[in-house]
């Protein structure tokens, strides 16, 4: 019964989103495209950060790599963009899978920093490889109306949300939640946690890269500082935590709220928009510390682990 | 199971609807405001996303002030004379937080919600890239002031114009100056972003073809805070001159560390840095003698009807904003002025007509010099000056006859200062 | 000039600048498991304060340093007591979010207060250096290294031998047991954050003396502190010194051998390697 | 298990441990606090690697296999401090183990139902792990281990903190398991439990095995009593025995 209502609500939300372009308000579509993009990115973060309990600070690496690879293949090798996009998504997923193996052995803050380093190192390498555009980046042909990109981003966001829903209600989802609760115990009941974590990381990478390839075409110009901006990862994290980590709707809700708040702040104030946004985030943390959906589960069973003593 | 309950989804719906409503409401409010302005029928509104906050806020403010000065001067003159009627200029700024993403959405917002059809660009090449795609797809003209990356104009866009020459041309005048001062070996050090790379490549190619010996060339990551080891290396190569192409902080850091490391050059020159008043303020007497590739100085012998001479422009600027203008501000004012000229030539503020007028402006003579608008929207023919810091002020030392102002080339060693 | 001798010295001195900037970050992380994303903006704010005191009252930064330390200590203490403590026990990542918001607020406030202009604290000795056996030793960087060593020793003595320091260490090791032993956790946290803020301010003044800054300069400083803290190891008083020296030397030597453009590849590549091989850093405790 | 040794830093925790377990038997492992019991379980379960020696399960060497592989071989452990999945419901906790144990679909659900019944947890099926009481969590741990169809079960103080009634119930469960042919290594502080169910008892003291044999025999060894109860107690008792005034009865 409650499930049926949920499906109905999901359908209504998707339908409303599909019909949004009928307003033919291009600004609204532009903003909505950005929100859909971040909803997809936050959902991708949620897979590894929210469900599995591994707080990645480097997911922007996959977004950036997807964008850069797709652009490089289409500009330098003259591949059709759709082929380039597919290759870029697969490549980034593989990248996530391979790097996930060593990185996912780390826990807590150490994992966070390692992923941050991963993103920064990826950017540094891309900046120095001419085939990948170097520091100069790529400019891609301008394509049709903004509606295409809205639907593409919305499609990825829906895919991400639906995927999250399916995962949460599957055995795989249980495995991820078990890893988040207690990884050793999960291993002790026979779960190959390395494989499960790496799969989640790779799925997260694939979704991030999908957004990246669409973003490159949407922006039509990309350069490393823009597509590897660590702030993008921070936004994924902030949106997910704000909406409710480990939930299906949380990342989407977070993306909608932050996206709209950003636009409102920029419209209301000429030179204090960051201040307003910052205060907004602080207010949410102070007054809704468990995320808006309120079912936020504290990372790793609610215990604050990893505190280390200062010693001489 | 509490993972996804009906109540929460309901809440989610309600909150999103509320927010969308707020957004739409806010947007339409803005639109209303502007239509009421436009209904006065004697106002021309021009949009400009700009960097009021974020990493580019500093240069963003200079560009903002440059645009604003043109608006204020024109309005003080009674407005822009178009087809015998004077129109007030209304510039609408929106903070992009220095992020290209926001430039897209802000430009879109100004076009579709606020009904703005003419644009001046945000600062910095990546931001111009982003904003110009929106302008292009809506077929509204945008004049860029704040980025001369060649790539912007190689995309075949029809609605993007610029008041800046290509980045690759910035260093030509500096090298011409050095050539006449007995400099033979030069070291190039540049940041890894688009603008710095283009400027450096242009400069290095110019140096090699003009008989210089490039003894060192390296790229560093943007935002580098320690370049002392590069300076140590350059000292070993015995370079006569150091040419740095990067950002403001890096230029200051290079001068600081050259002194700290006691690395002496006969000349030091930078693209971004010396032209801004903050450069001499930050470095004090250590800035003395440093050369800066500029696009404009108040000493240049050009003038136009809006601002008068370059010197008068500088006076007006100082009166309004309290500081000396540097080229960022002047080039922004020039971009705004180009927009004014095009509107006058078109005889209307219709975006298509203004675009066609811009494309057909040909050679124009403004307070920042004479230049020709190319078919791809870039400009050609601007004579680029060079400045030198003397007694804490930027003094024009190039082109001739200003070369008589050159002092201290070769620079005295740090120990003798 | 000895090329390699000078380059090694450059690396060591840059290590001092990097290390002193990470001292506070490491302390807050080690004791409270708090990653302060506003760390860099705290430092920039301190640099502005030192600059304002120099320009308006003519007080040399080294004279105003104790005052700035105390001001930041007090501000940090109250910030932790009134705001951060409210969420610090709720969830690890809520504090991340909170400090992320704080960073936005601080960076924007600084633009409103000081404008977006680039500034540096330009004293007579800011660009001076000592010459020693053909090697140049920039005074400010040398002082940064000395301060880092002295502060590390003081911090170690404080944590090891003072009553309060022991309470802080006990809290860091096992919060629950510390509370059962009668230690007032909120007060210890406030003290730690205050101490951290004071140390951040010291690092910020040194950054202002050795570099140009603007309100937006905080982000890279935070990332730098991250790297140094991990390289040196979380949870030791000597971590920032060790991490700073490692990173400084690595960047100096790497930028000459491979070219400066590869500095970030080397830095972050090494960071990844260290994390994978020895996640507790060079001086950190053995893996639990 | 051959000549297994483990040290942490400079501290030698286990030294030269060798023993093998008979299929279908219950072996008790006792020893004072800090004797190395939990370390031993960690080594067998794969959570830790021995510095020296080898561990075999049937004829397969397991001391370098990952924990999850060992678990899938049927060598299943529980934890001294209960480690259950807080974010999953009780049923999901058990079902997860059943799944990795190789069951699917209807069979899996039936098995889960059966185990919940055996451990008397069926009323709590939908409760999230974090909301269960401690005895429930302990039983859940056991239930989860059972769902893996263990051949060898390592039970690390599964009964600590239970009241007498719960204790009896737990012992009952272990007996049922033995009758099904599950081999067990039971670590317990409570002598009553060990004595009641073990076919054989191992005594660990300061990292070495000091006794191995049937429970009645082991408990009578003076070195065991010394390790457990302290030298003075043993001396007193010996004096008392010499005086002809009877001994202790188990503990």
From TrEMBL, chain A:
A GO CC annotation given for this chain: plasma membrane
- Cited Pfam families: BPD_transp_2 (PF02653)
Q: Which GO terms describe its molecular function?
A: branched-chain amino acid transmembrane transporter activity
Entry keyword annotation includes Cell membrane: yes
Q: Which UniProt keywords apply?
A: Cell membrane, Membrane, Transmembrane, Transmembrane helix
Membrane topology per record: Multi-pass membrane protein
Name assigned to this protein: Branched-chain amino acid ABC transporter permease
Protein source organism: Desulfotomaculum copahuensis
UniProtKB/TrEMBL annotation, chain C:
Q: Name one GO biological process term.
A: amino acid transport
Q: Which UniProt keywords apply?
A: Amino-acid transport, Cell membrane, Membrane, Transmembrane, Transmembrane helix, Transport
Cell membrane in keyword set: yes
Q: Transmembrane ranges? A: 6-27, 34-51, 63-84, 96-118, 138-159, 187-207, 213-234
**Membrane topology, record value:** Multi-pass membrane protein
Q: Please identify the protein, giving its name as recorded.
A: Branched-chain amino acid ABC transporter permease
Lineage top rank: taxon: Bacteria
InterPro entries, from UniProt? ABC_transp_permease, BCAA_transport_permease
Cite a GO CC annotation.
Answer: plasma membrane
Compartments where located: Cell membrane
Q: What is its main location?
A: membrane
- Which molecular function term from Gene Ontology is one that the record holds? transmembrane transporter activity
